[in-house]
Amino acid sequence: MLLGKLAQPVRSRSQLLLGGRRCFWGWLNAVFNKVDYERIQAVGPDRAASEWLLRCGALVRYQGYQKWQQDYNGLPTGPLGKYKIEAINATESCIMYRGFDYLDGLEHVTEIKLQKCIYIQDKCLQRLSETKNLQKSLLQLKIISCGNVTDKGIIALHKLMNLEYLYLSDLPGIREKETTVRILQQALPNLELELDLE
Questions:
Q1: Which residues are paired to 142 by β-bridges?
Q2: Most buried of 27, 128, 159, 186 (most Cβ within 10 A)?
Q3: In whole angstroms, what is the distance from residue 51 CA to residue 83 CA?
Q4: What whole-number distance in Å separates Cα of residue 33 and Cα of residue 117?
Q5: C-alpha Rg value of the chain to the nearest Å
Q6: Residue burial 33-54, b: 16+ Cβ < 10 Å; e: rest
Q7: pLDDT of 48-74, one tens digit each?
Q8: pTM more than 0.70
Q9: Tens of pLDDT, residues 86-143
């Protein structure tokens, strides 16, 4: 019995630290995604959402501007409501379901790109598609290399009634490609659907 306990592998210090780092980053990302409703009221939905997205590593582009905003400290100032988010590029960002309430007040978002977002999962896409303003404004959506997305999340996008273009690539969770495509095309007959799925 004693020999059995002695024969168990000893975890190295680096193995223990790595697990601790993962927990720390997960905790920090959750903090970054915590919705501050008072901030939304104080600065408006577009400014508050910009702060959230940039804090999480995403980029935003404002209506009437070509340049992507990526520097949190360089967020434009001006009168309340002057800068309206038109596009979101969340490539390799840590946005997660917890922060999606920031999207509720956005009325001008026409494009969203979710690429290599480790926290994006089906409930995020369901929440996205249930956001009334996005149901009206969102025209283009790209979902690439988000390993936690399954058919269920993609099918939920059928509520985005004005969606014109959907690009899906490298989504291993999609198992019923033909069924999922058929359901989307029936619900959104004008949707241009581009697939790069194996």
A1: 113, 167
A2: 128
A3: 12
A4: 13
A5: 20
A6: bebeeeebeebbbbbbbbbbbb
A7: 999 999 999 999 999 999 999 999 999
A8: yes
A9: 999 999 999 999 999 999 999 999 999 999 999 999 999 999 999 999 999 999 999 9
